[in-house]
């Protein structure tokens, strides 16, 4: 056996390995893309849920946009005040008090309240249900109750009870994923401090609204007349509250004959 030839081949291969290693090392340093150290800090400060509440594909994309100055530091709603303060310190910007929001259900159309249009037997998805003859409920603005919003919530803040979605405000981070998912726009992000809510979106004529749901707004305007702060008005046959003007006096709740205005504790 020619050991000399074998040793020469091994030496040649070893030399080539060292040469290629040096070339790759040089190329890595020569063509390396500089990484802003703030990216790692921002990425660690955000909530990490990859929920898309900020409007970006995920936390990495949002962190990069913040570092580049392309995104506001207040967009990570799941992170709350702690994340806002941290990003302000990292980016050397002035922090502010983040307005705490939660998702609210603008409907009370649970089973026995909203009138059924037909008995739906298809796939358990709201999007599919509303595409068939206007949906299983007679009210075209009501919660369908098949849980599309529950499935997209990454914080276990939603559940279906008696045919309608219920939200746990202590778990809700106002990421807004449920709002985007709802085919009926029943869900809306509102300030958590806005404790008086019109839980109806039915814009049909009063008679039609009442025939569809026993708690539908009938545009009687009694709430509008009772409000001394110009905070509630009836538009398109349904009452709407301006949270900035509402003082939580509760007068509109008292006079509503349909009990569609709710005041939370």
Major sheet description: 2 strands, antiparallel
Round the mean pLDDT to the nearest integer and report it.
90
H/E element order: HHHHEHHEEHEEHHEEHE
Rg: 28 Å
Termini distance? 92 Å
Helix content: 25-40%
* Alpha-beta content class: alpha+beta
Low-pLDDT residue spans? none
The tally of beta strands, per DSSP, is 8
CATH-scheme architecture of the largest domain: 2-Layer Sandwich
| Total count of helical runs of at least 4 residues | 10
Q: Quaternary status of these chains?
A: single chain
Description:
The structure is a single chain. The protein has 265 residues and is α+β, with helices and mostly antiparallel strands. The chain has ten helices and eight strands. The protein has helices at 3-30, 37-45, 59-67, 80-90, 126-130, 148-152, 177-181, 206-212, 222-226, 251-255, and strands at 101-105, 158-161, 164-167, 187-191, 196-198, 232-235, 238-241, 261-263. The longest helix is centred in the N-terminal third of the chain and has 28 residues, at 3-30. The model has no long low-confidence stretch (mean pLDDT 90).
Structural topology:
Layout: H1 3-30, H2 37-45, H3 59-67, H4 80-90, E1 101-105, H5 126-130, H6 148-152, E2 158-161, E3 164-167, H7 177-181, E4 187-191, E5 196-198, H8 206-212, H9 222-226, E6 232-235, E7 238-241, H10 251-255, E8 261-263
Antiparallel strand pairs: 1-4, 2-3, 5-8, 6-7
Defining traits:
Alpha-Beta Plaits; two-stranded antiparallel sheet; 8 strands; 3 domains; 3-methyladenine DNA Glycosylase II, Chain A, domain 3; single chain; two-stranded antiparallel ribbon; 265 residues
